[in-house]
Automatic annotation (TrEMBL):
The keyword Signal applies. Residues 25-43 have a biased composition (Basic and acidic residues). Residues 23-56 are annotated as: Disordered. Residues 44-56 have a biased composition (Acidic residues). This is Lipoprotein. Keywords: Signal. Residues 1-18 form the signal peptide. The keyword DNA-binding does not apply.
Length: 177
């Protein structure tokens, strides 16, 4: 009986050691010997992340959007009506296949900026958006519809989570239509 118990304990111990043990690479990393590769890999990942952030496709942001008279008019309108507005910043216009786009932070809500898109007046999706209030957007090859306010050949988008969502849209409709 003692031999059987000793054999079972040996099997359990060897199974535990096999399960908890690792290969040589894992042991070296635990000892600190393999950390050079890990640190180099982390540095490369950080560099890649920085590079991709720095290499934002410039062709998707038209810097002239900051000088667009209509966008400036909207910025001034919001300011004149008591909203605390951030600066007018150019943004990615490819989402709605626009000519240019800009955004404005309203009342400190940096997660819910007012996004404005200047579309070609002959854009095929413009009439659909006027009728339905839904602008056809494309992102990463996928198409979908996003609720937008359409005034002339401009799309306005402000997320419903913004505390001044209804008031801002009402102001834009009253003053710009």
């Amino acid at each position: 009986m003692k031999k059987l118990l000793l054999l079972v304990l040996t099997l359990i111990l060897s199974t535990a050691l096999a399960a908890c043990g690792g290969d040589k690479a894992n042991n070296e990393k635990a000892d600190g010997k393999g950390n050079e590769e890990q640190v180099k890999g982390e540095d490369q990942g950080a560099d890649e992340g920085q590079a991709s952030e720095e290499e934002w496709p410039e062709e998707l942001i038209n810097p002239e959007a900051a000088n667009n008279e209509y966008f400036i008019k909207v910025h001034d309108l919001l300011k004149e009506n008591g909203y605390e507005v951030g600066e007018l910043t150019p943004s990615d216009y490819s989402f709605f296949n626009a000519k240019m786009a800009a955004q404005i932070e309203i009342n400190g809500e940096d997660m819910f900026t007012l996004q404005m898109y200047d579309l070609d007046p002959a854009d095929e999706n413009l009439e659909h958006a006027r009728k339905t209030g839904m602008g056809t957007a494309e992102y990463a090859g996928e198409k979908g519809e996003i609720p937008v306010l359409v005034i002339d050949h401009y799309y306005f988008f402000l997320a419903e989570g913004h505390p001044n969502y209804e008031d801002v849209y009402k102001l834009l409709e009253e003053k710009l239509k």
